[in-house]
Amino acid sequence: MLVTGGRFDCEVLVIGAGLVGLSTAYALARSAPGARVVVLEKEPGPARHQSGHNSGVIHSGLYYPPGSLKARYATRGAAEMTAFCAEAGIAHAVTGKLVVATERAELPRLHALAQRGRANGLAVSELGPAQIREREPEVRGLAALRVEATGVCDYPAVARELARASGAELRYGAEVTRISRRAARGVAVQVDTAGTGGGPGRREVLRARVLVNCGGLHSDRLARLAGDEPGVRIVPFRGEYYELTRPELVRGLVYPVPDPAFPFLGTHLTRGVDGRVHVGPNAVPALAREGYERGRVVPGELAATLLWPGSRQLARRHWRYGVGELHRSLSKRAFTASVRRLLPEATEADLRPAPAGVRAQAVLRDGTLADDFLIREAPRAVHVLNAPSPAATAALPIGREIARRALNLLGTAPERIPVGR
User: Fold this and answer.
1) How far is Cα 256 from Cα 101, in angstroms, rounded to an integer?
2) Is the pLDDT of residue 412 over 80?
3) In angstroms, how far is CA 361 from the centroid of its own chain?
4) What does the alpha-carbon distance between residue 382 and residue 403 come to, in Å, rounded to a whole number?
5) Closest among 167, 179, 175 to 211, alpha carbons compared
6) List of residues 6+ apart from 253 with CB closer than 8 A
7) Is the pLDDT higher at 184 or at 177?
8) Residue 388, preceding peptide bond in cis (omega within 30° of 0)
9) How many other CB atoms sit within 10 Å of the CB of residue 201?
10) Angle 155-166/19-31 helices, nearest 10 degrees?
11) Are 145 and 254 in contact (CB under 8 A)?
12) Which residue pairs from 374-378 have beta carbons closer than 8 angstroms and sit at least 24 positions apart in sequence?
């Protein structure tokens, strides 16, 4: 039990300085200027996990079921993220993208995707082989969709700007080790802070009226630490990328037609704001929540994943898909073959390894992959338990929604939270 008193150190305590946590702090500053907000981050800086290990794409909202949180947040968030970058002078570009069908069996899915995009309010044009070559001379396909409202940006720079503009107190190197609701009408959080220069660390207790858990890869663990059963577990998937040594082969963003059974978009080609072209990712189970390196294993985290009934159900249901992803992970030749479906000129020599990312995928007890945003409220706490792609794109509207819920718990929610920056 944490020792607590009646004094509060802040109104809202946010755990996690990724894009979602920082956008929440930013929204709180704009909608409740007098509220004191503290953001805790165990890493030495912001955006050190999913927010800083992605392809940098500003997604349009093409893929998501109309009416879902993903669709609503992505279409709104893409425009807001582009405007935010322009106003803050952050590197970005609106490039548009192609979604390319390379087999006849994919054509009905491509057509359905076009209908979904239009239902989400997007400008979508359907292209034939000659029109594909006009836009991407080295890409081959039977048909494609052109989606204009897609771009790229520097998300770590976005996180730094959100941190600056939020006005929140940011504490880096601060790991949450205990959470108690036994403070009078509030939450007490024990924080261990790493020492500097090899010196001893420090332990303290912070008291807040409301806790916001934006812990990403550790969000389910933090919810349980607070005494709340989330009903899901985070199963980490490592996304492995390569970089094209001949970036001139790709002008913009090129995607395959996704498999509707999985919340992954397949191996795609992404020209970033720095001109480099990344290829990937595949999706293989990680052996640690922060398992960016293939050989990194954290036994306790791996055991927790294996013991979760949903993990076993997921493996039983989709083992064939998993075997294919694992094959592409272990065999550069197999990975290259998947790239050559879109880019026939690519060879193994054109691909060099690039840093991997880890996706915090929430899995339900029955093995279902949580495909939409999952935000749950508990007494004096808001838990963000699933924030998959397009969370980076949609960070600003997601942050407003989380801020609204936190302010409701405080009993001081404004009538309207501003839209846009």
Assistant:
1) 6
2) no
3) 9
4) 9
5) 179
6) 57, 95, 96, 97, 98, 150, 152, 268, 269, 270, 271
7) 177
8) no
9) 12
10) 30
11) no
12) 374/232, 375/401, 375/402, 375/405, 376/223, 376/228, 376/230, 377/405, 377/409, 378/223, 378/226, 378/228
> Could you tell me if 48 and 54 are in contact, meaning their C-beta atoms sit under 8 angstroms apart?
no
- DSSP H helical ranges for 120-218: 129-135, 155-166
Name every residue whose Cβ is closer than 8 Å to that of residue 408 and which is 6 or more positions away in sequence: none
The number of C-alpha atoms within 13 Å of 121 and in the hemisphere containing its C-beta is: 11
* H or E element in which residue 100 lies: strand 97-101
165: its two tokens: 């503009």
Per DSSP, 180 falls in state E
pLDDT greater at residue 133 or residue 388? 133
Question: Distance (Å, rounded) from C-alpha 354 to C-alpha 54?
Answer: 11
- Cα distance between residue 271 and residue 276, in whole Å: 6
Q: What is the pLDDT of residues 207-241, one digit of tens each?
A: 999 999 999 999 999 999 999 999 999 999 999 99
- CATH number of this structure's domain 1-91+150-231+370-421: 3.50.50.60
pLDDT digits (tens, 9 = 90+) for 11-33: 999 999 999 999 999 999 999 99
Phi/psi at 18 (5° precision): -85, -175
pLDDT at 169 over 50: yes
Give the angle subtended at the CA of 257 by the CAs of 254 and 262, to the nearest 5°.
120
CA dist 319 → 282, 309, 388 (Å) = 15, 15, 22
- What is the DSSP secondary structure assignment for residue 369, as one 8-state letter? B
Q: Is the dihedral of CA 409, 413, 415, 420 positive or negative?
A: negative
- The confidence score (pLDDT) of residue 319 equals 82
Alpha helices by DSSP H, listed for 270-308, are 299-307
> Is 261:333 a contact under the CB 8 Å cutoff?
no
Bond prior to 247 in cis (omega within 30° of 0):
no
What are the contacts of 309-315 at 24+ separation with CB within 8 A?
309/365, 309/366, 309/367, 310/232, 310/233, 310/235, 310/363, 310/364, 310/365, 310/366, 310/367, 310/368, 311/233, 311/235, 311/363, 311/367, 312/367, 313/366, 313/367, 314/235, 314/363, 314/367, 314/369
What pLDDT is recorded for position 420?
37
- Residue that the structure tokens 């940006």 belong to: 153
Tokens of 309: 């009934």
How many of the other CB atoms lie within 10 Å of CB of 231?
Answer: 15
Q: Quick check: 61 and 71 in contact, CB under 8 A?
A: yes
> pTM of the prediction?
0.92
